[in-house]
Write a structure and sequence with these properties.
Elements: H1 2-19, H2 49-63, H3 67-80, H4 85-97, H5 101-114, H6 119-131, H7 135-144, H8 150-176, H9 180-193, H10 198-211, H11 214-227, H12 232-244, H13 248-261, H14 266-282, H15 286-289, H16 299-309, H17 311-315, H18 333-341, H19 362-376, H20 388-393, H21 395-405, H22 422-437
Helix pairs in contact: 2-3, 2-4, 3-4, 4-5, 4-6, 5-6, 6-7, 7-8, 8-9, 8-10, 9-10, 10-11, 11-12, 12-13, 13-14, 16-18, 19-21, 19-22
Amino acid sequence: MAHALSVVALSFALACASSAPLPPPAPLPAAGEIFLVDPMEGYPLTAAEDLSERLRWGFRELLAGDLEGAAAVAEALRGRDPGFHPASVLAAQVALVEKRAAEAQHLLERVVDELPGYVAAQLVLGHAAEIRGEVLAAFDAYRAVAAAHPAAAERAAELRPRALDVLANRFDDALARGRLEDAAAALARLEAWAPEDRRTLESAWRLAAARGDRAAERSVLERLASREPERREVLERLAELDLEEGRFQLGIARLEALVERYPADRELAGLLERAKFLWRLENLPPAVRQLADAPQLSRAELATLLYWLVPEVRVVTVDNPPIATDIIDHPRHDEIVRVVSLGLLEVDETVHRFAPDRPVTRAQVLAALLTLLVRSGEPLACLEGVRDLDLRSSRSLTCRTAARCGLLEEEGDCLPAAPVSGAEALELFRALDHLSAS
């Protein structure tokens, strides 16, 4: 009997339990979640009142923890009016609560493309991107509405250093791989997010240099110089651009300031000497400047360079001009006469010909320059025991002396019978200037 009563009591208790209502869903901690905002917040379009009211009801269900009810409202509203963006925001909020961040992103990417200032959409999208570890996307979303929402501004400020690091690394990787368009895309975002950040300016400089865009490079270098007026590599590169663009006085002034600051730096001193030499070339007659582009200099052209670049050649008085039948009507007659009178180039005494159009050899150029150096009386150790007459008669002595004096890096570079381009000859003239000034 007692057993029967126990069974009846158990059955009654189970019946009562099955008929009792389920406990209500637990409310969501709205205050602690940046994405749980009214889906209508910051919505820039006009919405029908019944749609707005139904949406708010669905949002209240979400906050109350009824995810199924909120999802049903969102789905119904999207089906009724696919262009009602707040319904997509509500659906994305439900997806986030259910830990479906990728789906939330997918729901809102088109929405924010169309309405970039839509606060609720960007907050939800930013939070979804954060969950997925997409720092750039999260920062971009929060930054878009930072002025309109304090929480977005706070998250953007916190994410900014990481976002810039990621973007700068992406730029570095693209540039290292030669993917200039990808690097340009990363730079465009850096410039939009942090236009005055040093990394942005450095990246702009590097990309401009990689593209060979001198105007863009100068522009960013001038901005860097205004921020860091003492920065050597910036001023040095600006000076190089000045010289390339024909702004010789400005480039020389920059280099002189650097040499004054770093008096022991031989590289800088060499750059300054080169700048002054280029300025000298710039002041020469156009026909002489054009010789710099000659692929192969003739003997007459070397005589012209000697005449214009070596003051001693221009001022020499010729009492007994050389007899050479092939230069009488030559357009470079005066230059040739002076060079031959100084013994820098020779006339073939057998046939009395100078051969003005014959290619000049490297040995002849080096012998002429070393002869000038010997006669200058400069107390250089590399010239000890060397006579100018010996230079003209011995190629091996010429090559060996040129290497010892630094006109060549090593004797094997001499190639005495090889022709000489205008650019090569000018570089040898510049090296001669350096020796004379040292």
